[in-house]
Design goal:
- This protein is mainly α.
- Strand 1 and strand 2 form a beta hairpin.
- Helix 3 packs antiparallel against helix 8 and helix 3 packs across helix 11.
- The longest helix has 19 residues.
- The two termini are 21 Å apart.
- The N terminus is likely disordered.
C-alpha cells in the first residue's frame, strides 16, 4: 500500500502544488501520485496489471515495482489477460530467469493463474472489473493524515475472499486494499492534496 508505506503528511512541491507527502520522495512516486493513484480503473487488462503488480510488491518497496514496471510489462505481454493466460512452464522458466523483474516463483505462477481466473470470469458472463468494483464502498471519508489510512478494511477483506473464491492467488486483505487504492475504488489522497479532487473526478 503506497500511502502508509512512505510516510509524510502534505508537502508543497517545487511547483508549489500541495500533495500527499509520500509523493515528494522520488520522481516515480510523483508521477504515479499525480497521474494514476486513486483514479478509477475499469479496463480489464489495466485492472489485471494493478492486481499483479500489487502482488509482486508484497514484502518489497513500491518504488522497486515502479522502477521495474516497463520490464514487467515487457515480460508479461503487456499484461493482456488472454496472452498471459496462455503462458506455460517455458514462460515460467523465462520469467524466473529475467533479472529485470521480481523473480519469485509463487508470484509469477499467481500472475498466470490470475489471468486464467479472469478469463474464467469472462466465460461465466462476468468480468474482473465487475467483480472488483462491486466491492467499492459507498462512502470513504478523506484521510487527514497517513495514520488515518488503513492497511485493510472489511471491504478489502471481502474483495480478497471473493477473488480467492474465483481462483485468484496471492491476494489478501492488504493487497486487496492496495488494489482498491490504486484503481480508485477508494480515494486515499489526503484532505488538502491538490490531486484528490482530480482523482475523484477522473
Amino acid at each position: 500500500m503506497i500511502g502508509p508505506a512512505v510516510s509524510g503528511d502534505l508537502h508543497i512541491g517545487p511547483d508549489g502544488v500541495l500533495r500527499c507527502g509520500w509523493a515528494s520522495s522520488a520522481p516515480e512516486y510523483l508521477r504515479y501520485h499525480d497521474e494514476e493513484w486513486g483514479r478509477p480503473v475499469r479496463d480489464e487488462d489495466a485492472l489485471y496489471e494493478r492486481l499483479c503488480l500489487e502482488g509482486f510488491q508484497s514484502g518489497l518497496a513500491w518504488i522497486t515495482i515502479l522502477r521495474k514496471r516497463e520490464a514487467f510489462r515487457d515480460a508479461f505481454a503487456g499484461f493482456r489477460v488472454e496472452r498471459v493466460a496462455s503462458f506455460g512452464e517455458r514462460d515460467v522458466a523465462r520469467l524466473l530467469a529475467d533479472a529485470r523483474i521480481v523473480r519469485h516463483r509463487g508470484k509469477v505462477e499467481a500472475a498466470i493463474a490470475n489471468a486464467r481466473a479472469a478469463l474464467a470470469l469472462r466465460a461465466a458472463g462476468g468480468s474482473l472489473a465487475e467483480l472488483v468494483w462491486s466491492h467499492a464502498p459507498a462512502a470513504h471519508p478523506a484521510p487527514r493524515t497517513p495514520g488515518d489510512v488503513p492497511a485493510s478494511t472489511p471491504a478489502s477483506a471481502a474483495l480478497a475472499r471473493t477473488l480467492r473464491g474465483h481462483g485468484f492467488r496471492f491476494v489478501g486483505p492488504t493487497t486487496a486494499y492496495a488494489l482498491m487504492q490504486a484503481c480508485g475504488l477508494v480515494n486515499d489522497h489526503l484532505a488538502g492534496c491538490a490531486v484528490r479532487a482530480a482523482a475523484a473526478g477522473a
